[in-house]
Description:
The complex is a heterodimer of chains A (715) and B (73). Chain A is mostly helical and 715 residues long. Helix content of chain A is 71%, strand content 0%. Chain A has a domain of 421 residues. The mean pLDDT of chain B is 85. Chain B is an all-alpha fold and 73 residues long. At the A-B interface, helix 5, helix 11, helix 13, helix 16 and helix 23 of A face helix 1, helix 2 and helix 3 of B.
Amino acid sequence: MSVNEARRARPTPKTILIWTAVALVGAVSWGMVALSRGEEISAIWLVAAALGSYAIAYRFYSRFIARRVLKVDDSRATPAERHDDGIDYQPTDRRVLFGHHFAAIAGAGPLVGPVLAAQMGYLPGTLWIVVGVIFAGAVQDMIVLFLSMRRDGKTLGQMARDEIGRVGGAAALIAVLAIMIILLAVLALVVVNALAASPWGTFSVAMTIPIALFMGFYMRYLRPGRVLETSLIGVVLLLFAIVGGGWVDNSSWAETFTWSPTTLVLCLVGYGFVASVLPVWMLLAPRDYLSTFMKIGTIVLLAVGVVVTAPMLKNDAVTPFASSGAGPVFAGSLFPFLFITIACGALSGFHALVSSGTTPKLIQKESQVRLIGYGAMLMESFVAVMALIAASILDPGLYYAMNAPAGLLGTTVESASQAVANLGFTISPEDLAAAARSVEEQSLIARTGGAPTLAFGMAEIFSGVFGGHAMKAFWYHFAIMFEALFILTTVDAGTRVGRFMLQDMLGNIWKPIGRVTWKPGIWITSAVIVGLWGYFLYVGATDPLGGINQLFPLFGIANQLLAAIALTVCTTLLIKSGRLRWAWVTGIPLAWDVAVTFTAGWQKIFHSNPKIGFFAQRQLYADALDDGKILAPAKSLDDMETVMLNSTVNGVTMIIFLVLVALVIGHAALICVRAVRSPQPLPTTETPYVESTIIVPAARSKVLAGASTGQADRE
Amino acid sequence: MRAHSRAAALLGPLTRLLRGVRWYLREISGTADYERYCRRHEERHPGEPVPTRRDYERHLTRHREANPQGRCC
């Protein structure tokens, strides 16, 4: 028995004591969160419950997956070591790679989803964010990362094609592209809803474009490669832009920057196209740096703020909407709609695209998939918990006044106050007006999409630590700008990735369009991608029913369907590589995810309640139109027709998604059956073993050095 | 003497921390990449001139142009 194994076998009394304490803290906190009824509790309990659970899950479950299921082997050279070319492939310090990977997976999703999910209370949301990440989200990220690493960094689409077959692979590729379009549209819609009629926010966000251009030219011509210095200048300019927004808001320029949703849509579409065809150094790369630093800085600030101010949760643990399914923010019952609304913080299919591709080419040692895949996702989940806290410390009356659709709330503080009272909550017209004044916005009524609510909650927390009430408006717009900044970065990068995918697919049919250097090809494919998400964005921004509550379920289902594809690939590969007994590790989350997404999708298509089923909604409006009636919130016959068209498009999109994913899962199931029946293991595309020559100091990877098939067993 | 060593004992962890922060920021932002590239180049192609920082960054940008990385939602 090696030294490592001896160390593994006998836990010291100290470690037993520490882990017992961690388990106790977690259990007591969960008890506080779950059992308190009718009285306000401190947000600290949510933080402690989450952190305690993460610690236990990381220490025990992720280690079990690494050792038993994946059999990571640190004596095996990773692609980074074998192909080390200093650019694409290079062994990267695990802490640095953790940062890169986290920055790539964390975005607006974990911030927006939980805010909307707060409609059902903080308890169901927190439970799913924590349980979901431990057993589904982090598992998916880690295993996809591992599988891609064992295949020289192949993408999810390539792995699906190689391992599931051509039809399944093609369906997966088309599904990935289609799902991405909806994701981009909904994210952009969050920005539109946050900036509409807000001159302060619009000015600050618009300023990020000249700032990024300046940074781009500075880094290209004046100080090549000085990212830190340039980003520091950028961040300072950005803070000035926020302060400047306040001045603009109080000046005669306010009018110039008060834009309607339609104007904002056109600007975003135009911007997305330009960003996709311009060289990356000019706009995309500097924005990316800026957004990464802002993202990490703000998340740290939020964590510190929550711990220092220890705010009380004003939201109920479980609201009546959890059982009635009649909430104004999103319609439908807790199962399945809570799980698709939270999306990214617990399980995000999009992460599988990041975990296959760039990150696996940079891993130094196999055992590090645990820190990078599992660990980074735990951190993302923690961000989601904080977003849920930020939404839950708001007065519920204000929460519903901000998040119910405009059609329900009307346009005045009086009508909104009345509508909120009809929902069973209270906020007086004066309080509502005062809340808007406190952040220097004209109105907070129906500021849907999650971003303004989160910004308001963050402003409460931040102003409790820095600057007090006087700084609240600054912090509100700081939070808006920070969300808009990294949503726009996602939209830029996503448009570009989508353009490459489309060029790749169309290149099979017509060669020239696939060439990445042929300008017309770039323009055409960029225009197609931008046009597609631009269409859904426009639909969302102009929908008489309030676009976000129509499109957000589509977004959530799309993201979770992508996760279903990723988990299918993982499960198939586990079975193909002779690990049937461990297939439940991804099989159970897959079964759950399929149950959630297909139930939600089915209800979105066939439900007889027009608030849930797209086609029932279409029918309701079509019948009214036949009778010559106009149904609120539609105001004209045109509105009625718009609702009918939108419902049809959304419903058909839903059907296409479900069919594509069912196709992938069906093909994968056939392969799995074949693999189980086959006397010899089916061929997989794993690259052969090469011995590693990189020596990592023992302290860093002692836990997994030579796990199972590795060095220790052979000794 | 003792006061000095006590100050050093206090400063030790602090400078280590600051050095660590600086290292991390330089690594994660990619500022340190060029130096590593130069070392590599000298190891693998001794005697050959090392590309300038500007050339290196342009090469990197061209590479990024052709290999877009998605950002998550």
